[in-house]
Amino acid sequence: MDMITVEVPSVLSSALEGQRSLQVPLPAEGTVRALLEVLGAQYPVFARRVRDERGEIRRYVNIFVGPENIRDLSGLDSQLYPGRTVLIMQSVAGG
Amino acid sequence: MDNDPRTIMAIGTKKGLWLAESADRESWTLNGPHFLNIEVASVAIDTREGRTRILAGINDWHWGPAVVHSDDEGATWSETEHGAIKFPPDTDTALARIWHLRPDTAERPGVVWAGCEPISVFRSTDSGENFELNRGLWNHPHRSEWGAGFGGAAVHSIVPNIQDPNIIHAAMSTGGVYRSSDGGTSWEPRNKGISANFFPDPYPEFGQCVHHITADAQDPTRLYAQNHGGVYRTDDAGDQWISIADGLPADFGFVFLAHPRTGGTVWTIPLTSDEHRIPVNGRLSLYRSTDAGVSWSEQHHGLPDVDYNVVLRDAAALDEHPGAVGVYFGTRGGEVFASNDEGDHFVTVAARLPDVLSVRAAQVVG
């Protein structure tokens, strides 16, 4: 089975049962959106942290597929490939 | 812990929540921060149903807003897995901030109200674990004309009627006061007499920047409003408002408190105009009226002679002590003050916290 690695900062790990790195089967649709749906079904709090109730990625959350921010790709429709790492991070914000 | 009554205080700040505790409301211990670096715009202490539940409306700049609660005075916190407050899909709207959490009366256990940004009212019937959007206000035909105050566009005050559950008042910035007489199905503007001096017509039907409203303890048709310029009272549930600013050193401010048992006893914290937004002459004082705003007297004992920090609308509260009611407030300078004698003297509970956004206090046993 093709797998994707998902990595999150420590602050988000509490919403993933303490995990900072997960191996997730590559969804059939092969998109970031599908990956977040799979993860969100299992971890609803994680889903709310990353996306609002409209399904939009929160303003100060960045998602990288490999080295690329998905906002520079196709957003939630950005494609995933076997073996890729998806990194979810908070952006620089606050004061 | 013993069985003597204690007073606990929840202090929401721009960067976390602190809890304070006192046996005499004079000497306080502080613990925190909870939710470090997360904004806590609203707090509530719900002592109904034989337990003490602290509710907090938190907002993580990265990971979004949520309502959390603790039934063990902050030792542990819980949140509803799928989110306590969320806009339904058909609204295509996302919750931005929880501005106000308000447990209903003791006769309506489990009912908790939330005023939110964007402008909305939510209601819970399970003590704040799940809320439902009030569709009557959300679908109101005035919505497109409501504006945003400096802090955002939100319902910041919800006042359920203590006698009739069908009557609810809500206030928003900007939009003004709205009243429902049918349990929230429909809402009508109730701003007659309240100034909106930032419009060509200073007395429009709606659009006022009302900063806070609250109800009198004994007469539910009597409400008070601290406006963006103006302090008002209504004696007919909002049909007509009259100025009660005479005797105050300024009519701008955010805070308005009404005694939980004694009708006509109220407090406000005047600020100099909307241009400066500081305590009048830099002197931090409350003003108390015992005649429903006909006359006012300053309360300053124990407060700083020089303080240029604002007290925000939900950053002040009263307790329901059976003797002298306690008065509590925090400033944007991070100081928190408490009075155990209805404001006659204050002690400092905390200093140099982040900006204080929300304060609530209550007596608990155990």
Automatic annotation (TrEMBL), chain A:
<dbReference type="InterPro" id="IPR003749">
    <property type="entry name" value="ThiS/MoaD-like"/>
</dbReference>
<dbReference type="Pfam" id="PF02597">
    <property type="entry name" value="ThiS"/>
</dbReference>
<protein>
    <submittedName>
        <fullName>9.5 kDa culture filtrate antigen cfp10A</fullName>
    </submittedName>
</protein>
<dbReference type="InterPro" id="IPR052045">
    <property type="entry name" value="Sulfur_Carrier/Prot_Modifier"/>
</dbReference>
<dbReference type="InterPro" id="IPR012675">
    <property type="entry name" value="Beta-grasp_dom_sf"/>
</dbReference>
<dbReference type="InterPro" id="IPR016155">
    <property type="entry name" value="Mopterin_synth/thiamin_S_b"/>
</dbReference>
From TrEMBL, chain B:
<keyword id="KW-0378">Hydrolase</keyword>
<protein>
    <submittedName>
        <fullName>Glycosyl hydrolase</fullName>
    </submittedName>
</protein>
<dbReference type="InterPro" id="IPR052025">
    <property type="entry name" value="Xyloglucanase_GH74"/>
</dbReference>
<dbReference type="GO" id="GO:0016787">
    <property type="term" value="F:hydrolase activity"/>
</dbReference>
<dbReference type="GO" id="GO:0010411">
    <property type="term" value="P:xyloglucan metabolic process"/>
</dbReference>
<dbReference type="InterPro" id="IPR015943">
    <property type="entry name" value="WD40/YVTN_repeat-like_dom_sf"/>
</dbReference>
